[in-house]
Write a structure and sequence with these properties.
Length: 110
Amino acid sequence: EQREKGRWGIEMIFIPMYIPSTHEFVWTYNQYLNSKHWNIVKYQFAQIFPRICFQCGNTHNLNIHHMTYERLGAEYPMDLVYLCESCHKALHAYVRHQKLVNKRRYKQQW
């Protein structure tokens, strides 16, 4: 298990994993995003879904966002969504904020 800051500054716990389809071993999430496997997943995703932001409809500066990390390394197409850079940043800012709010609520209970 390894902790690292993700692309948007969110601390993540990443368990090193072996990806059988491409015979790769990745130690961090950033390594995963640079893996052959992820490049294949992105290509396949682009063949299925239109390149448009799920949130605002923008067609420029798109990122593929993981809706869940449950099947990381064996993603289903429904685990992913296109988000433009702006919406992606806003989503992660919201997630960071919610984590802080929940942390404060939990501390206040005790």
